[in-house]
Design a protein that fits this description.
- The protein is of the alpha/beta class.
- It folds into two domains: about 45 residues; about 230 residues, Alpha/Beta hydrolase fold, catalytic domain (Rossmann fold).
- It is about 35% helix and about 15% strand.
- The protein contains ten helices and ten strands.
- The strands form two sheets. Strands 2-3-6-4-7-8-9-10 form an eight-stranded mixed beta sheet, with helices on both faces. A two-stranded parallel ribbon has the order 1-5.
- Helix 6 links the parallel strand 7 and strand 8.
- Helix 5 packs across helix 6.
- The radius of gyration is 20 Å and the shape is globular.
- The two termini are about 35 Å apart.
């Protein structure tokens, strides 16, 4: 699988750096460094939006091949994009859960997880991002936040759920969508799996030093987590090589109560759901069972 924030590995090969290497060699005049910094700062949103996402538009099952109980649907955003989603209704359950995936693949590849969540007693919406699967558009940080709001609005308007009946679950970069959408909202709960603390902290963790500051406030869960107004569960693997477990612990430390943290010993970034399935699914089951309907 792609590195969830692989753009950091490409930062050293940006246009500005290549120009620097070609024309300046080992010289470092102040004026050139200022220009280089300005170019990098102005271009960082483009770099992030171009390199942070790795959507799969091809490997998709036909609608007729979907498992029983899984429905394909499209949600239209307020800026006109059509989001490719999956809906797993479980009437008469009074609760719904929205699943926000990581930065690669597509939602079809998460169907087994969606089904497992539905088996816990939720109406589940696998909310696709723009540019992923059969969705229109191209993914951007601001765009996937917009997609998340559209998914929540779909449940509130189309299925008449109340906000307190809705749980958000965000994995990896999807944690940023969950946190952004949950800010100040009286939702049922938020679950973050292998969350990122911020784009800047990801860059620091992977050894990019001063370049980390060009990330600005990208995917900045750390500055937003204290605005969540509902119960929070964070699940993280101790061997996570992409978003180190310290990121989850930082978010937990800053989040308001009630909050819960579950560390899964030996689990990595991409295998956490099946490395120790009893521990992982048990944590989600116990947490959601403790919530008042």
């Amino acid at each position: 699988m792609h590195h969830p924030l692989a753009f950091w590995r490409q930062m050293k090969e940006t246009r500005a750096v290549l120009i620097y290497r070609r024309h300046m060699g080992n010289k470092r005049p102040v004026w050139f460094l200022i220009v280089l910094a300005a170019v990098a700062w102005l271009s960082y949103p483009w770099v992030i939006n171009s390199c942070a996402f790795h959507p799969d538009r091809r490997n998709l099952p036909a609608t007729s091949q979907l498992p029983s109980g899984v429905e394909e649907l499209f949600i239209t955003t307020d800026d006109g994009e059509r989001l490719h989603c999956y809906w797993l209704p479980r009437p008469p359950s009074p609760r719904a859960l929205i699943y926000f995936q990581g930065n690669s693949g597509n939602m079809a590849q998460r169907i087994p997880e969606l089904m497992r969540l539905a088996d816990l007693g939720f109406n589940v919406l696998g909310a696709g991002y723009r540019g992923f699967g059969k969705s229109t558009g191209r993914p951007t940080e601001s765009g996937i936040y917009r997609d998340g709001r559209s998914a929540l609005n779909y449940l509130l308007t189309r299925h008449a759920f109340q906000k307190r009946q809705v749980i958000l679950l965000g994995c990896s970069i999807g944690s940023a969508v969950a946190v952004e959408i949950a800010r100040g909202e009286p939702l049922g709960a938020v679950i973050l799996v292998t969350p990122i603390s911020s784009g800047k902290e990801i860059a620091k963790a992977h050894g990019y030093g001063p370049l980390a500051y060009f990330a600005g406030d990208a995917f900045d869960n750390l500055s937003r987590i204290d605005q969540i107004r509902c119960p929070l569960l964070i699940v993280h693997g101790t061997a996570d090589e992409v978003t180190p477990i310290d990121m989850g612990r930082q978010l937990y430390a800053k989040a308001p109560e009630p909050k819960y943290f579950v560390a899964i010993e030996g689990a990595h970034h991409n295998d956490i759901a099946f490395f120790a399935p009893d521990r992982y699914w048990g944590a989600i089951k116990d947490f959601t069972a403790s919530l008042s309907h």
